[in-house]
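Duplicate of #3305? Posting structure anyway:
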């Protein structure tokens, strides 16, 4: 795990506040006593979101014969955890005011890892993972800000990744002197995110996670690390990550390559169901 972090330039003035809806979703996820009614109230803040959520619930992906028109039924069909992550993702759209194609590709990967993290955690049989979709969604928030704050140098990062076939965090260290995990931790601390989420953002590429004594933090960070690698191999969004070790695959019960391939297919199908819902349709230009 990282014990020291590279100094980040004073960019606090350039970091927007975490949207109110996203903040409320984090509170609901963290509160085991929070009710479905509270989640419905958050959804009701955005009528367009409510309508699109119903479209997703009635999509062919769920293979349901009965059309539903009630938000409660939609949440039941899609799943509470997925709905929370979708609301959180959509509420972060304001971060993309100056978005470009590269920014979209970063968010496509983030969304893919959010979907993948839920499926990996389920495969591993890990309990207490209600917030893992948000961990996956925000794991590369540092990339978002590196690109938004200095697009020219981040283009240099991508050139390094492509030409030398190295992971993003290595290329970022060469270009910036720090990587997206350092930047992500900086942003997460500014947003006052839960410590477990800060840890995942800061450490999802670290090689010694299996040595951790805190089982909860270890499991979440490893789930995201593995989900990140699967999405990177599957070409979901913009990513090139380091390869997990055999021991890490085994810890998550994914040592069988055929099982990993089947999981990757499931991830791709579910990701494609939600991509345009969260990010909007791709430009045809």
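Output from current build:
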């Amino acid at each position: 795990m990282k014990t020291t972090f590279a100094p980040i330039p004073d960019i606090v003035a350039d970091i927007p506040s975490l949207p109110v809806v996203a903040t409320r979703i984090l509170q609901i996820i963290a509160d085991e006593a929070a009710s479905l009614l509270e989640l419905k109230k958050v959804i009701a803040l955005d009528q367009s979101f409510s309508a699109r959520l119903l479209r997703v619930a009635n999509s062919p992906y769920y293979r349901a014969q009965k059309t539903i028109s009630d938000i409660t039924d939609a949440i039941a069909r899609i799943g509470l955890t997925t709905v929370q992550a979708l609301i959180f993702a959509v509420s972060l759209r304001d971060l993309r005011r100056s978005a470009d194609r590269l920014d979209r590709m970063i968010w496509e990967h983030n969304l893919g890892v959010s979907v993948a993290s839920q499926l990996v955690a389920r495969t591993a049989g890990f309990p207490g993972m209600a917030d893992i979709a948000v961990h996956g969604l925000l794991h590369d928030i540092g990339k978002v800000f590196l690109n938004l704050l200095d697009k020219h140098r981040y283009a240099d990062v991508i050139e390094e990744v492509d030409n030398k076939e190295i992971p993003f965090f290595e290329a970022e260290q060469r270009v910036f002197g720090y990587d997206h995990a350092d930047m992500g931790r900086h942003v997460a601390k500014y947003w006052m995110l839960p410590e477990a989420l800060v840890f995942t953002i800061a450490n999802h590429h670290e090689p010694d996670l299996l040595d951790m004594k805190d089982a909860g933090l270890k499991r979440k960070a490893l789930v995201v690390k593995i989900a990140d690698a699967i999405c990177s191999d599957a070409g979901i969004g913009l990513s090139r990550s380091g390869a997990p070790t055999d021991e890490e695959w085994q810890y998550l019960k994914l040592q069988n390559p055929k099982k990993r391939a089947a999981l990757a297919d499931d991830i791709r199908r579910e990701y494609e169901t939600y991509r345009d819902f969260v990010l909007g349709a791709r430009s045809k230009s």
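Confirmed duplicate; merging threads. The chain has one domain: 13-279. The mean pLDDT is 88.
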